[in-house]
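FORM 7B - TANDEM STRUCTURE REPORT

SECTION 1: FIRST PROTEIN
SEQUENCE AND TOKENS:
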Amino acid sequence: MQLVIGIVLGVAAGLAVGALVASRVAIGRRRAAAEQEIERMAADAQRSADAIRREAQVEAKEEALKLRAEVERELADRRAETIKVEERTAAREKDVERTATDLERREQGLADRELHVKELQESLKEAKDTQLRELERIAGLTNADAKRQLLQEAEEQIRRDMGRMVRVAEEEAQAEAKKRARNLVADALQRVAASHAAETTVSLVELPSDDMKGRIIGREGRNIRALENLTGVDFIIDDTPQAVVLSSFDGVRREVAKLTLAKLVEDGRIHPSRIEEMYYQSKAEIEDHIRQLGEQAVFEANVGSMHDELAKLLGRLRFRTSYGQNILKHSLECTHLAGIMASELGASVKTAKRAALLHDAGKAMTHEVEGSHAAISAQMAKRYGESQHVVHAIEAHHYEVQPQTVEAVLVIAADAISASRPGARGESLEHYVKRLENLEGLAASKKGVERVYALQAGREIRVMVKPAELDDDEAALLSHEIAREIEGQLEYPGQIKVTVIRESRATEYAK
């Protein structure tokens, strides 16, 4: 049994060994075949690479030949273009040379002509001088005398023509204007009556006794110094019995100081801390009083609602004067006058009255605000919402701008009527006499004036002229000259009428 198994195992082992040997032989043959195939493929690849290399070399040579041909063609084109440029440059150089030659010839020609012109000018000058000397010899006048005589004759002729034109224009304008203006102004003045009191720059505070003066001054003057520093008002304590004089150009400050001192005198306690307390209390009361005055003015003028700041400005005008005339009362009077005239002429009553009420509001501002009071008033009105027509009438009421509307002219007229009517303004006797002397002296300095009279408190000047020296036209021109010089050199309230009287007529010109 074991023998059989051994034989079987031997046979199996032999078969396995044989199969192994056969597989190795087969693998060897396949490897050899694969190696041969690899060698054949490598040879094919080498042959393909050689063919591609040869083709690339051929294409590269052909491309190089093409590029060389293109470069040669481009070089040839550039050479041709360069030759053309050189030819053009040479041609231009020739043109420049020809132009330079022409310019040289022209310069020489101009120099010759200039020399010839100078010679001609000298010849003409000599001929002109000879002619002028001959004319002077024949006429018996020098050149300067002849010019002066011609200018004088022309000036006299122009003055006569101007005087004639002025006289004719005045006569035509006055014939129509006087007829309507006299009735209009007279009606307005009859319907407006306002009382005016001249106010000075001082106020008087009565004291219960002279002993109070010492308490007001205080120890080493501390009380009066505190009063003056707070109020900005001068306290004058002199020999006036039982009274203290307050001096200041600012009416509001003077009123605050007056009320402060009155409260201190009534209270009896006068020391720096009490003075400061009474000052601020009085200042608040005056500010409230100013507001009430402004509101009352707006109500009295019947112009409708108005901005609070504008009403305050109107209230401050109660403490301002112009030539002794209270400005708030003057503004109210102008308001009524402008309203009456506007209603008569069919103009805007509201615009005229609002502009007349606010026309002097700028006088309530301090010196810190620069500009004329008309310009300041217009700025304030514009800032607080007044219409353009109202603003224009305000800024034009002193002709700082030319009036363009009927309402602006009415405000000018109302301002002049209120300021210039008798009793409206007051001035010192010395100032009054000096103003009259200046008016008469200015008019008397004119040529041909014989006598001068100032009438109606200096609101009219009558000038008597010599008939042999001035004719009617020159008299009319003289009135205008005097009016312009009064406007430019002198101070005057309202308007002044200049009347030049000659034998044949009297020529008037109001300014």
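SECTION 2: SECOND PROTEIN
SEQUENCE AND TOKENS:
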Amino acid sequence: MDRRQFFERLLGGTALSLYALRELNGAIYDSINSLNDAYQQVPSPDGAYWDAVKKHYLMENNLIMMNNGTVGPIPQPVYNTMMEYFKVQMTTPSDLYTYFPAKVEEVRYKLASFANVSSDEVAITRNTTEGLNFVANGLDMKEGDEVLMSNLEHPSMTNAWRLKAKRYGIKVTEVPLGVPPKSVEEIVDAFRKAITPRTKIIAVAHTIFITGLITPLKELSDLAHKNGLLILADSAHGIGMIDLKLHDWGVDFYASSPYKWLGAPPEAGFFYVRKDVQDKLWPTIGFSGWDTYKTAKRFETFSQRADALVMGLGEALNFQTVIGKSRVERRVKSLASYLKSSLRDIPGFKLHTNTDEYLSAGLTAFSIKGVNPEDVVNHVREKYNIVVRTIGNADRGTLGVRVSTHIFVSTRDIDLLVQGVREVARNSGA
């Protein structure tokens, strides 16, 4: 083999290919670090900083994406990483069992650090739904035992426990919450009053998809543990929108979908099981390791999976970490506050989301009396290329429009949205 052939083969190999990936992504992170240095005195600037960050997201140039609550765009480094690892996976299949396992463990450690927990408490699932079902399926409960959940839960939560009820005769009790509730005390008191001697677990959304409420997990966890109960949080939107502090909050189980706000690919989920309660939860899937692993890894025994998606999750964690978790949360909340204040003088406007930043973050839901929410969604997409969605149920008083304000959204974008809402309201005679 001559020198040229040697280098041609080397350039096609895994090691140098991944080295090139690190160089490519590293250039992007260097640019963000330069922005951090330039704007270090400004915690959440609107303008040059976030406009520059937005350029690293893969979106159609004129698209204004305000529906991270369903699925979000991914940053360029995440795309680069997925494509490169898919190439490795497809061209060097032996790496699936020699090289990839250690890389998956690196992602587990990154997830743990990002959520302020131990790596022994982290399982890498496919999505929130899977984590919620792992808890519903895995807890020993008998006929008559009770689970409490709010009246605003996602179908992933309600159906996991409805299935358990149908199979084992447990009782599912809904706890009514206001739209929006007035205070932390109102939420905690509602659950306190609902607890009975048969209650075993509180299962509640941390980030409520219908109204944008952020439930007070720390206070609810304290309530649960004082009464000898477990607590499960559905936080499909939490990771990447809020700076997670799961140990501080005291929650027992926490399931999230990084493909919404973190910028990860679909089918790479986050499931947290507090170390002290792991022995109370049976694994749902029986495969090698379910009975020998001494950590939360026992809940992700799936056999072979698309590890390139897990690598993409790891890169999404890198991307937000470089920007700064607390900076992301501040930006998300400041944009949501700007949206709420910009909408409030529209005749017939009703806000379904709290204005208190402890009880709200990046999801804002609202309605306009006499206006069909679908008309708003269609109008702003057709005229301004803004993506939002309808949400809720008229009978429950939650039907409206839901807006996601992530870091790549600007106040200019929000102004366009508000203008579109005003146009629909005016044309409908509201």
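SECTION 3: OBSERVATIONS ON SECOND PROTEIN
Residues 14-38 form the longest helix (25 residues).
The two ends are 78 Å apart (CA to CA).

SECTION 4: SIGNATURE
Preparer initials: ____
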